[in-house]
Amino acid sequence: MRRKILATGMMVGLLGAAACGGDSEAGDGGGEGGGEIAIITVDASNPYWAAEVATAEALAEELGYSYTTGAHGNDPDEQTRLMETAINNDVDGILLDPAGADESVAVVEQAVDAGIPVSLVNAEISETGLAEAQIVSNNAQGAALGAETWAEAMDYEGTYVELYGEPSDNNAPVRSDGYEQVLSQYPDLEKVGEEVANWDRQEGQTSMEQLLSRYPDIDGVISGNDEMALGAINALEEAGRLDEVQVLGFDGSNDAAEAVADGSMVATVLQPITDGTTQAIEILDEVIRTGDSSVEDEKIALDCILVTEENADQLADFELSE
User: Fold this and answer.
1) Averaged pLDDT for residues 102-122
2) CB distance 47 to 8 below 8 Å
3) What is the pLDDT of residue 33?
4) Half-sphere exposure of 166 (CA within 13 A, CB side)
5) Regarding beta strands 220-223 and 268-270, do their DSSP bridges make them parallel or antiparallel, or are they unpaired?
6) Full-model pTM
7) In this predicted structure, what is the pLDDT of residue 79?
8) Distances (CA, A) of 133 to 5, 272, 302
9) Contact assessment for residue 97 and residue 73, using Cβ atoms and an 8 Å cutoff
10) CATH of 8-136+272-302, one of 3.30.70.3270, 1.25.10.10, 3.40.50.150, 3.40.50.2300
11) What is the C-alpha to C-alpha distance for residues 19 and 85, in angstroms, rounded to an integer?
């Protein structure tokens, strides 16, 4: 069930309130569902999470739900506040992009104990049997795709650095390990440095500037997401080294697609966030309506898609056209 989502700029505008932790409400739609869903994401200013929320909002309204939206910024305390608000408001269901695998268990359990079903998207928690579904991208598979293509662009030799995502997010180590499993096969590729940049473009740029000051002659950059990679590209361009350094991203944002198309980035790995969010909302709706879910496995991993110069022009709003 694939739906086109709003353009990135529009999505960010829609979620301005959520970026400050505020809530927004929609009409009750006209579907067969009914009631209220709380949509809790990570960072509304990031195109990836903006796509996640826009998809959830559109489908929730189509199914007949009102909704609130909020963003926790990977802060477990803010996540707790948003979750407890939803619980106190006696919502019918919660869609959550968790702020940490361990940190999110207690608040999910709190919602479930209150009789509110929770569906997780994009990131997992460290326990099963609480959420109705945990739908994530197959990050290991996606990282392997990206790393192999990037290694080829590097001619399987040279020095490189890594920009690492939010440490409490399970996706960060999974992608990093996925990169390592591929790149360790090539002894002439040497990783010389790493910086945590928390999925953020500005932090990516700052971290890249610091890495360049220590390793001015690096040949490549691997990044845990597109925003950090785009920040690295800004730093490399300012340093006059962009044409000499191979950069790898991960997410499949519009800006990354443009960077791949113009040669600034070797590749990005498209996460099927619209498909994952659609499935998560549909499962939540089924549980709200029937009291049960038809899915057999709580954890669902969706394969990622490699985006290179050959298909970058087909990528828009986290959807790859045929």
Assistant:
1) 98
2) yes
3) 57
4) 19
5) unpaired
6) 0.86
7) 98
8) 22, 16, 13
9) no
10) 3.40.50.2300
11) 16
